## 1
Amino acid sequence: MYPKGAFKVTVFEQLSRLGGLWPSNSTDKGLINSSMSTNLSKYTVCFSDKTWPENEPSHPSPVFPKASDVGQYLKQYVDKYLNNPSVEIKTSCRVEEASMVEEDASKQIKWRVRVRDLRAGDKGPSPLASAEALADSSPNTAETEEHFFDHVIICSGFFGRPIIPKAFVHQEDTPIPIIHSSEFSNLKELLKDNKRAPGKIGRAHV
């Protein structure tokens, strides 16, 4: 273990909350349904320094927690371990670039991290944009800021960009709604505005 305060850590998170694809409640827009159960038990889906909370002996945590339980667990972990001066958490921002900088051979190599603030209504590139479109999009450097660090850890995870086959993209004239499973929360949302036509729900991610 390193002594307390040995590192000054900065976390950049694109969402307005921590947790990634794990929603902390039914209103969070994660990539999975908040009521979905994990496919691993609570004895596996946990950190070594925090067990699952057992609120009441008669009502223990479920063996297979729901997605919203995982989101709450992550929130509790942040509150317990990351709520200190050594950790700065920046939400609603996206890392545009991370590059090594070596100005002087006698000095330690630094990492330059360029971050863009995602203001209200600014969600960055569309998650359904093609790989070609994402590659062609050039970040606006006027809206970014640079940070310098000794070390960088990339925690991008997976399941970040939904995949919809090209055959189904831009089908504006079709009466059948086509959505990705990450946009589906419940039947009421699927049938809002009295849309009762059958639809297609896909689930692939990259």
## 2
Amino acid sequence: MCLLIVNPERRKIDRFILENARDANPDGFGFAYSEGNGVVAKKSSGSSDAAFRRFCAAIKAHRPQIIHFRLATHGSVCRKLSHPFTGHRWAMAHNGILGGISSTSDWESDTSILASMIRNSGRCPKEIEKELSEICGKGNKLGFVFDDASTLIINEAAGFWEGGIWHSNRSGVESPDWLWRVPKSHQKETQYEPVVDQYDFDTWR
């Protein structure tokens, strides 16, 4: 499913939302924000608790922002395919499955291909909002942040706003259903057990 969050007004995001989102979408996380004359994206392939703590701390310091938690449907679980993806003065993250785009390698995904298509067009996503909406259809959502600190949501009506923050679905504000089917003793054990991130070796950048 993935979760895309757009935070355009420098609002604080509760830690439990980030934890719920990671539990429901465990295959990578990242965020992007404007800085100076450009956009910075930071991401991880997602299994390291230490990386997640640094991620949560960094989110507090850099806003406005887009945030993404990945549940892999195309391509391998690796930092390269974690969102956001960057272009000229913008960063993008996606929630959904793009039916018209298919990957041919484990090292690319529907979203990474779409990001490349936008970069290669040489146009700002704001200029091709209509075309992006047609690609997304009703079920997909895209979030952008730009170097001027503005944001753009494609298919905004398919998500919801809460406290000045837009969510593409409810996997952050609600605990994953599968947690309630696991004995509490096991929940506690797995929640705090250290896990080494095989791609980032407990680091992210």
## 3
Amino acid sequence: MRLLWGLALLSLPASALAAPPDRRVLQPRTVDLSTKAEEARLEAIQRLPPLIRSVDDGRRAEVLFRYAELLFDQGRASWIREWDRYGEQIDACDANPACNADAVQVDNRGSERWYRQAISVYQKLLRDYPRYERVDEATYHLGLTLADLGEADEAVSIQKRLVKLHPRSPHTPAAYVAIGEHYFDADEPFPALLAYTKASKTDHPL
């Protein structure tokens, strides 16, 4: 894998990455996939919109951030399950000589619905509260969400904004790695190597 080669070249740990089938996306944190956790997320997602409308402006940014994170987590949980199901379908197809593996496609419609909502909330947060104390984290997760949706150009643009506006953020190294991955996937090794080098030289190297 080109990305892992690049990371090894710079002595960056591969543990910073997760690898669902045929995808390589940085994980910001572990998402609880249990039924209990999902029920709690869904309940909170239902309750937060009225609170956002009623809370005073000084607290609205924090509530918006929490809402976006819940939507992101639910999207990521759905996304992981979708790729797991895809893997099971591929395994079953491989065991059946009559099955055409090329016809087996991953269905990401469920996760996309959650991700689109998360993107909308992250964008509102960044637009309306640019001085919010966790704006760097919101920016990073917005980039991750776009990456999971396959919108690579938009995702790398967001990560570039993060490293430019928040060079001392603890999320900056991971953003540089995401930028490097983008350039490697585009067969542009030199800007990719530059991004990986910057990832290793930030205030919070991976």
## 4
Amino acid sequence: MTILSAAFAALKFGIKPIKYFIDNTFRSKVRPVPGSVLYCDLWVAAEHSGIYAGRRQISNIVVDGIAESEVQLSSPDSFTSKSLLGSKIYVSCDRHGAVGHDAVAERSLFDVGERSFYGLVIKNCHQFSSKCVKTLESGAPSLWDQLNPLNWIDSTWEPTIRELKRTAESRLGATKWRLWDWENDFGDDEDDDSGEHNTPRRPPS
């Protein structure tokens, strides 16, 4: 690793806790919809991702042995149990609110119970989430979302979560990531009829 690349990586790691603080303190919170992509920061250089299946259940890969894993449905508490930066969960969003799709949620449920090899960059949680989102056809974000400079800041360095974010953008129209304060959100999907951000969205045409 060159000095320049090491400095760039250090900058990325330093941005992450600052970004979390800003998102947690100043930006509005969201509630995911079925098929939303979720992730939490485990520590300054790693994330854990999954797919929101509805009813406060998250379909995700759980490591339960040496290089062994199983696709399970987890509660938000279990999903964030190894997070050191905070307990809140990032949700795929556009400028209107949370984005997801029933087909993505259904695809994530199809694999529940499946056991597999697990690697940090091969067969990991981000690749599982990407596979579920790729159930949908690719679309394109709006011109506003492409040009908005606030969307250019990214603290991600690991290639498979970068790919997951790109996939969520092209298939779900996810151009933002906002926090879900699940510890203070006691409703469920059917209880909330407040508006479009709780309606599963189809990818942009």
